[in-house]
Design goal:
The protein is of the alpha+beta class. It folds into 2 domains: 1-40; 42-102, IHF-like DNA-binding proteins (HU Protein, Chain A, Irregular). The chain has helices spanning 3-13, 19-38, 84-91, 98-101, and strands spanning 43-45, 49-56, 59-62, 69-72, 75-82. A 3-stranded antiparallel β-sheet has the order 1-2-5. A two-stranded antiparallel ribbon has the order 3-4. The chain starts with a helix and ends with a helix.
Amino acid sequence: MLKSEILEELHKKHNNLSTEDIEILFNIFINKVSDSLKNGRNIEIRGFGTISRKINREKIVRNPKTNEKFFKNQSYKLHFKIGKILHKKINDFSDSNIENEI
């Protein structure tokens, strides 16, 4: 799903807000999430999941084509742990009342 599609869906549900206002709110949300992850804090959205930052340690790596070795600095990657409600919704468990939990 693209950002424009998300904004369009939000505008359909909240037509009292202008498209520009929705885009501003969406950008604020994305910036807050990015800043929190950059500062080492986890993001937890109940029912959706948790996004955390994991460390890729520094190490010596090798280019397989040229066999040249070089040093790779420490970097970070994102880790997403799916929430219980989203997991049930994606896997379509028929015996659960997901709509009631949302």
